[in-house]
From TrEMBL, chain A:
<feature type="transmembrane region" description="Helical">
    <location>
        <begin position="311"/>
        <end position="333"/>
    </location>
</feature>
<dbReference type="GO" id="GO:0005548">
    <property type="term" value="F:phospholipid transporter activity"/>
</dbReference>
<protein>
    <submittedName>
        <fullName>Phospholipid/cholesterol/gamma-HCH transport system permease protein</fullName>
    </submittedName>
</protein>
<comment type="similarity">
    <text>Belongs to the MlaE permease family.</text>
</comment>
<feature type="transmembrane region" description="Helical">
    <location>
        <begin position="120"/>
        <end position="142"/>
    </location>
</feature>
<feature type="transmembrane region" description="Helical">
    <location>
        <begin position="211"/>
        <end position="235"/>
    </location>
</feature>
<keyword id="KW-0997">Cell inner membrane</keyword>
<comment type="function">
    <text>Could be part of an ABC transporter complex.</text>
</comment>
<dbReference type="Pfam" id="PF02405">
    <property type="entry name" value="MlaE"/>
</dbReference>
UniProtKB/TrEMBL annotation, chain B:
<dbReference type="InterPro" id="IPR027417">
    <property type="entry name" value="P-loop_NTPase"/>
</dbReference>
<dbReference type="GO" id="GO:0005524">
    <property type="term" value="F:ATP binding"/>
</dbReference>
<keyword id="KW-0547">Nucleotide-binding</keyword>
<dbReference type="GO" id="GO:0016887">
    <property type="term" value="F:ATP hydrolysis activity"/>
</dbReference>
<keyword id="KW-0067">ATP-binding</keyword>
<dbReference type="Pfam" id="PF00005">
    <property type="entry name" value="ABC_tran"/>
</dbReference>
<dbReference type="InterPro" id="IPR003439">
    <property type="entry name" value="ABC_transporter-like_ATP-bd"/>
</dbReference>
<dbReference type="InterPro" id="IPR003593">
    <property type="entry name" value="AAA+_ATPase"/>
</dbReference>
<dbReference type="InterPro" id="IPR017871">
    <property type="entry name" value="ABC_transporter-like_CS"/>
</dbReference>
Length: 373, 258
């Protein structure tokens, strides 16, 4: 620090002095109040060999920061009035100590490869975490079956209502509309060949095998999977889950088990309701657009559409339900302490659940094709 | 030192039928640290929120630097906003921003280059007693004490004349709390701040405050130094300043002074 020279008397105090910075040669002369607003003065960004601060009348931390930074950059700071020195000393004393940068610089090839590696690692870890949560669910289920009195029956019934019964209206509406759309499109295309009657086969097979269950799963993923993540995430954020652990309450058993079990049990029921609504929609459309009477529609359905199609569709339902619930719970437990991560995890949970459902559906298709169903 | 920077006259605050303040008068002098004490539910935080303009009292007038807080024009509001800094109880940091970005938030109003802003933020973080690497962290990654320091760094970002601290030492361990007391005292002396400090902590009152105002019976019951308040004949005030905890805090201060 430069030796202090006695402060000059402040100029005429009738009007508040304005800040000014003038660069003469290598010397930057500052006068008036050196406050944070002064830092946007264009003259302040030029480099100078010395700074004459003898006419500075007031100083704030930002001003002191400017002087100290200049001093550390090899510039001589002279003449700061005595009464402003303590602030400069305080700023100098608590100057941030920047540690050396470690790791590869961002933007380099090595950095990009490292980023890619981290993403792949994170993806594998998140896949493994799903397996972990499946294991936790099964272990909790086994424990609950061994000690039936610990079984969270009330909670299970509550969640069955929330994920099952309360989802019926939206599942019925969507499946009905899909039946209508398939019947209408099928009739329009098949009429060209004079084969309108096959519309019934088309609706039956498409709705029963794939569409009803897939759409139900997507609706449930958006509705219930997101709700699971948000509910568990909020509990995680408010340390409720930690509190449960300290009270010797197993979160796997009280939170995850009833949710996953409820969705696994309710999903086939929802899918069956979806099947019926889809077939009903197809029937309504066939009657309205093709003049196929309900009696003929039902007769042809039961004759030409084998019950294995319904079986193939429904057998997927519990698997999809379990996948959605486990993903929802797992992402909920990943939520950290901040509100941002709750939102991020909720949307990630829906995306992951829909993705998982479609991948599993593809797997089922290959499997059923191989076994000839 | 003698002219009041905040004046409150006839403040009445109520939530529904529940009256919190009734006919409350208080002056805060320029350059002092005023401690506000009072039992739970006497409206200490409510008073703070009324002064900074988050709450409008049912009656009465609050002026800060000569501007009536609740009848100020837009321009006056902006002027007031620049000269106030508030540290809320748990820091109230924005959870989606890092500590450094949190401290930069008040500076965004000024026309500063981004580099200057972030270096100034680093300086404030360091002045609040946080380590260098805290700047890049998110509030959820910090301990309670560090969040309070970060909250103080944000409150001091623009060197406001007036700083409001709501229970700055609550929930800190005694060592951390007394470090915080020294920090507040030191920053006040070098920056020439006026501090409005709501606290329950007797040690903080001893270590920091120039003057103490006691809230009770819906008004400011008394103001003065600890010694003056100790002689006041009111059951709550007497119990507060002469109870076992108060004596322990006094002895500690006396030992420190030796």
């Amino acid at each position: 620090m430069q030796p202090a020279t006695p402060g000059e008397p402040s100029p005429d105090s009738a009007s508040p002095p304005r800040f000014s910075a003038t660069l003469t040669g290598e010397c930057l002369i500052l006068s008036g109040p050196l406050r944070v607003q002064a830092l946007s003065d264009p003259a302040m960004t030029r480099s100078a060999a010395t700074i004459d601060a003898s006419a500075v009348t007031a100083l704030d931390t930002a001003g002191a920061w400017f002087l100290e930074k200049a001093r550390r950059g090899g510039c001589k700071v002279t003449g700061l009035p005595q009464e402003l020195q303590p602030l400069l000393r305080q700023v100098a004393a608590s100057w941030p100590q920047r540690p050396k940068e470690t790791g590869p610089p961002r933007g380099s090839l090595r950095g990009a490869v490292e980023q890619l590696g981290r993403h792949v690692g994170a993806a594998i870890a998140s896949l493994l975490a799903l397996v972990e949560y499946l294991g936790r669910f099964l272990a909790a289920l086994a424990r609950a079956l061994r000690h039936p009195r610990q079984f969270p029956l009330t909670s299970l019934v509550y969640h069955c209502q929330a994920v099952g019964l309360n989802a019926v209206p939206i599942v019925v509406t969507i499946s009905f509309l899909i039946g209508v759309v398939i019947a209408y499109q099928g009739a329009y295309q098949l009429r060209a060949f004079g084969a309108e009657i096959f519309t019934i086969d088309l609706v039956g097979i498409a709705v029963l095998r794939e569409l009803a269950i897939l759409l139900t799963a997507i609706v449930v993923a958006g509705r219930t999977g997101a709700a699971f993540t948000a509910a568990l995430g909020a509990m995680k954020m408010r340390e409720e889950i930690d509190a449960m652990r300290t009270l010797d309450i197993d979160p796997d058993q009280t939170l995850i088990l009833p949710r996953v079990l409820a969705l696994t049990l309710m999903m086939p029921i929802l899918a069956l309701i979806g099947d019926i609504a889809g077939l009903f929609g197809g029937g309504v459309m066939a009657w309205a657009a093709l003049d196929i009477s309900p009696a003929i529609y039902v007769a042809r359905l039961s004759q030409n559409v084998d019950v294995t199609h319904a079986f193939v569709g429904l057998v997927k339902a519990p698997v999809f339900g379990m996948l959605i619930a486990i993903i929802g719970c797992r992402f909920g437990m990943q939520v950290g302490g901040d509100t941002e991560s709750l939102g991020r995890m909720t949307s990630a949970s829906v995306v992951a659940a829909i993705f998982a459902v479609i991948v599993a559906d593809a797997g089922f298709s290959i499997f059923f094709a191989q076994v000839g169903l | 030192m003698s002219d009041p920077i905040i004046t409150m006259r006839g403040i009445r605050t109520q939530f529904g039928p529940k009256v919190i303040h009734d006919g409350l008068d208080l002056d805060v002098m320029r350059g002092e640290i005023l401690g506000i004490v009072g039992g739970s539910g006497t409206g200490k935080s409510v008073l703070l929120r009324s002064i900074v303009g988050l709450l409008t009292p049912a009656a009465g007038q609050i002026t800060v630097k000569g501007i009536d807080v609740h009848r100020a024009s837009g321009r006056e509001h902006a002027l007031l906003g620049r000269s106030l800094g508030v540290m809320f109880q748990d820091g109230a940091l924005f959870s989606t921003l890092t500590v450094r970005e949190n401290v930069e938030v008040p500076m965004r109003r000024l026309d500063l280059p981004a580099g200057v802003r972030s270096e100034l933020a680093d300086l404030k973080i360091s002045m609040a007693g946080l380590p260098w690497d805290a700047g890049g962290k998110y509030p959820s990654e910090l301990s309670g004490g560090m969040r309070k320091r970060a909250g103080l760094a944000r409150a001091l970002a623009l060197d406001p004349e007036l700083v409001f601290l709501d229970e700055p030492t609550a929930g800190l361990d005694p060592i951390g709390a007394s470090e915080f007391d020294r920090l507040i005292r030191g920053l006040t002396d070098t920056l020439g701040l006026t501090v409005f400090l709501v606290t329950h902590d007797l040690d903080t009152l001893h270590a920091c405050c120039d003057r103490i105002a006691v809230l009770a019976e819906k008004r400011v019951l008394a103001t003065g130094s600890i010694d003056q308040l100790r002689r006041i004949d009111h059951p709550w005030v007497h119990e507060y300043f002469n109870g076992p905890r108060a004596r322990a805090a006094m002895e500690q201060t006396a030992r420190k002074d030796d």
